Amino acid sequence: MLFREEQRSIGIGTPQEMANEAKESVDRGFNILKIKTGIDLKNDVEAIRLIRKNAGDNVRLKIDANQGWNIHDTLTAGASLVAAQFPHIRMAASDCFYPFIKRLGKRDSKRRKESVKKG
Questions:
Q1: Residue 118: pLDDT over 60
Q2: In the CATH scheme, what architecture does the domain 7-118 have?
Q3: Cα(62)–Cα(65) distance, integer angstroms
Q4: What is the pLDDT confidence band of residue 116, given thresholds at 50, 70 and 90?
Q5: What tens digit of pLDDT does each residue of 24-72 get?
Q6: What is the per-residue burial (b if ≥16 Cβ within 10 Å, else e) of 8-37?
Q7: At how many degrees (to 10) do helices 15-27 and 41-55 cross?
Q8: What is the mean predicted confidence (pLDDT) over 78-85?
Q9: What is the pTM assigned to this prediction?
Q10: Do residues 37 and 58 make contact, with C-beta atoms less than 8 angstroms apart?
Q11: What share of the chain is helix, strand, coil (3-state, %, to 5)?
Q12: Which of 23, 37, 118, 119 pairs with 5 at a CA distance of 20 to 30 A?
């Protein structure tokens, strides 16, 4: 049997509305959810947490903030959502922040590799 990835976008709404839409999408066979965010950081983080809980751990989450977050929001969201196992944040902040974010990602990746070697 071939594994086929199916993606569905979850539009901006209340965290519970978004979580319900995500659950319905997973029940219909979608295994990748692209979550639209970028309006309100607190609601965005809560929605992503609820979506992860409703969708389960086998569903891949992509977060699309469409440049709606500033650098502080992007870093806060990233730190807040580690437990939600998200692999990808797309267009979180304005392009002018990407060199800084890229350096942080490389630094964190290096730290994770070092901690695995020590552990």
A1: no
A2: Alpha-Beta Barrel (3.20)
A3: 10
A4: very low
A5: 999 999 999 999 998 999 999 999 999 999 888 889 888 888 888 887 8
A6: bebebeebeebbbbbbebbeeebbebbbbb
A7: 30
A8: 72
A9: 0.70
A10: no
A11: 55, 15, 30
A12: 37
Q: In this structure, what token pair is assigned to residue 61? A: 């989450």
Residues found in the chain: 119
Beta strands across the sheet bearing 88-90: 7-10, 32-36, 60-64, 88-90
Pair 23, 49: CB distance under 8 Å: no
On the question of pLDDT at 89 being above 80, the answer is no
Backbone φ and ψ of 88, nearest 5°: -150, 125
- DSSP notation for 6-43: -EEEE-S--HHHHHHHHHHHHHTT--EEEEE--S-HHH
